[in-house]
Design a protein that fits this description.
This protein is mainly alpha-helical and about 375 residues long. The protein has a domain of about 210 residues. The chain is built from 15 helices and 6 strands. A 4-stranded parallel β-sheet has the order 4-1-5-6. The protein has a two-stranded antiparallel sheet with strand order 2-3. Strand 2 and strand 3 form a beta hairpin. Helix 3 runs parallel beside helix 15. It is globular, with a radius of gyration of 25 Å.
Length: about 375
């Protein structure tokens, strides 16, 4: 007759194993949640972009995103990581784009890449698109041994994927956006629009009121107040459903959309996307204006919400994808962010001591100076 204790022992063993497995799953879940919580603590959305002032929900702050396969192509550490040298930076105005373009031009010079560019002047800084012939207003080299372009990082009046693809095949595409509220204000002061309002205590507030009245008469002015959407060929008059579909398509074409409000965080993602070094994404801020400007009040926010619905939806959409990408970051994001800032500070100290004149001169040069230097060099050695 078989004894029963062995059955009891087996049952206990299974029970203990089940308890062990459940315990391990709970522990891993706690660790994962703790990591996402640490990320969410550093995510603070701009206070001028709240649900109160937009017609769409802002998702991203404090969200607990689960890892998906959508971003594995740029965040997976298991694949071999080779620095990428084919890229297109779609540069909008007044978004920190000049700072990004400057670091990209330095990267190009360092790695002897061929830039698609033009000689910049104060009167003409924009690369214009000939959509009919799918050509950009850049310098073309008519020689049989021309190696082809590697990158572009200047203002383009209109994003046209077919034209860009013909110039730089197999490129990575990225851009940078900022809150439509501060963006419209920055563009106003930079372009000196409405200078007849200079005597007003708050020229921008007066300008917004006048612009709102003008748009009621001329709807085409919405292209000015929704410049991000206009540059990317999106319909500024579309409803929410159509806008979302268009943004999904655009998101499928862009490898990264950075946020000016989180510039360092954006560069960490850029470094990861392009498999570059921290030294490749250090920067010197360009065209930063410190002159006092009256703050945006609630009434002004409400007007901008009415003037820029397409751009607000665009910003909210890419704010969401940005923080989802942070949550899917395969390494310690905060550690990489700290590392970038450490390298950035070391470069600043290095240049304060003037230990490397050539390095510091390039780091401190603005985008126009760097572009024209690359322009002159390429004219000499290409073809």
């Amino acid at each position: 007759m078989k004894s029963t204790p062995s059955k009891v022992t087996c049952g206990c063993s299974r029970t203990n194993m089940l308890i062990f497995v459940v315990g391990m799953v709970s522990l891993l879940s706690a660790l994962s949640w703790n990591n996402l919580t640490r990320i969410s603590r550093m995510i603070i959305l701009p206070n001028h972009l709240t649900d109160e002032h937009t017609n769409t929900n802002i998702s991203g702050k404090g969200q607990s995103y689960s890892k998906t396969s959508s971003y594995d192509d740029v965040t997976s550490s298991t694949r071999s990581c080779k620095p990428l040298t084919k890229f297109v930076f779609v540069k909008p105005e007044k978004t920190g784009g000049s700072t990004v373009s400057s670091l990209l031009l330095r990267f190009g010079m360092k790695n002897k890449l061929v830039a698609a560019l033009k000689k910049l002047t104060i009167e003409d800084y924009l690369i214009r698109l000939d959509k009919k012939n799918h050509r950009l207003g850049i310098l073309y080299y008519n020689c049989s041994d021309f190696p082809g372009y590697d990158y572009i990082c200047l203002h383009i009046d209109m994003y046209d994927r077919l034209s860009l693809k013909r110039i730089i095949p197999n490129a990575k595409y990225f851009t940078i956006v900022r809150s439509p509220y501060t963006h419209l204000k920055s563009r106003f002061y930079y372009s000196r629009r409405g200078m007849n309002l200079a005597m007003s205590p708050d020229p921008f507030a007066r300008y917004l009121s006048d612009l709102l009245e003008d748009i009621k008469v001329d709807k085409s002015l919405l292209h000015w107040t929704n410049s991000f959407s206009t540059r990317f060929g999106l319909d500024v008059y579309a409803n929410k459903t159509s806008s979302l579909a268009a943004l999904e398509r655009l998101n499928g074409e862009l490898d990264l959309v950075m946020l000016l409000e989180y510039f360092d965080e954006s560069l960490v993602l850029l470094k990861k996307t392009m498999c570059w070094n921290f030294e490749d994404v250090i920067y010197n801020s360009c065209k930063v204006h410190t002159k006092y400007q009256p703050p945006i009040n609630n009434q002004m926010r409400d007007i901008i919400t009415e003037l820029s619905p397409a751009d607000i939806r665009l910003y909210n959409f890419f704010n969401n994808t940005f923080w989802r990408r942070v949550a899917n970051y395969d390494s310690d994001f905060e550690a990489d962010l700290a590392k970038l800032r450490s390298v950035q500070n070391a470069a600043k100290v290095r240049c304060q001591k003037d230990r490397d004149r050539d390095f510091c001169h390039r780091l401190q040069s603005d985008v126009a100076e760097l572009n024209n230097k690359v322009y002159e060099e390429q004219m000499k050695w290409l073809c």
